[in-house]
Amino acid sequence: MSKNLFFKSKDSKKDYFRWRIDRSREFISYLSKHITIKNKKILDFGCGQGALSYILADYNDVFAVDSPNVIFQSKELCKDKNIKFIGQKSKRFPFEDDSFDIVLLFYILEHVDDLKNIIEEVKRVLKKDGYLCVEFPPYYSLIGHHLYRFTLLPMQYFPKKFVKWYLLRNEQNIKHEDTLEDTPITRASAWKTFKSLNKITISKFRNLTKDMEMMNERFIFKYPGIFLINIKPLKYIPLFRELLSFSYSALLKK
């Protein structure tokens, strides 16, 4: 993973997409060590700009789902790929039962309103012996607030009024960033994202998926472009795995 891509990712939507492609490759590499990801029917739910789908579409039948306004951007960025983009408008996934070999939830679970519904829908559309692959930053971890581009403080532990003041206090800078052409990440958008986080934890995710077979987990401590370490002992230390796992990956079987 390139450090330069991470720091450039807020410059434009295309730079952000390149960074997401880089991160997606690492995630796919991890999954490929445990399951076959080729000639499969795959659902990329909460696809964002479509980076995961972009890579997987070369050798899989890929369906990418997100809100209609996000899908509009994804189609443009991935127009040279054969991906079936679908705008999601209801809580029920627009697919029949037992439709997919693999469902991917890559940095989306922390943003959804109804975690339980999403997990239940995933189970419904997964085929028997199908795989659920997830990665998300636990809310109480050092970067769980999603504000790491603007501060290293653990903002989720502070009152929201303080977080808002801290992020938006530089009005001149906000105005400049908001008018910067094609900039995907601003202080204002970061505040909006922070407010919407559902405070997901590893323990909560495990509880929602306890009827599935856990095949592999990663408790990731990382610095973009420098290192990525799976701290395996965190599996057995509940408090520390929530605090020290910058990202949590899991592979489960239905």
Structural key phrases:
254 residues; alpha/beta; Rossmann fold; 2 domains; 8-stranded mixed sheet; 8 strands; 22% strand
Structural class: alpha/beta
Mean residue pLDDT: 89
**Architecture of the largest domain, according to CATH?**
3-Layer(aba) Sandwich
Q: Uncertain regions: pLDDT < 50 for 5+ in a row?
A: 173-182
CA distance, first residue to last residue: 31 Å
Number of helices: 10
Largest sheet properties: 8 strands, mixed
The amount of beta strand, in percent, is 15-25%
Q: In the CATH hierarchy, what is the class of the largest domain?
A: Alpha Beta
State the shape: globular
Q: Which strand order does the major sheet show?
A: 3-2-1-4-5-8-6-7
Radius of gyration: 18 Å
E-strand count: 8
Query: Would you identify the CATH H-level superfamily of the largest domain?
Result: Vaccinia Virus protein VP39
From the 3D structure, determine the CATH topology of the largest domain.
Answer: Rossmann fold
- Counted up, domains total 2
Classify the helix fraction into a percent range.
25-40%
The sequence of SSEs as H and E is: HHEHEHEEHEHHHHEEHE
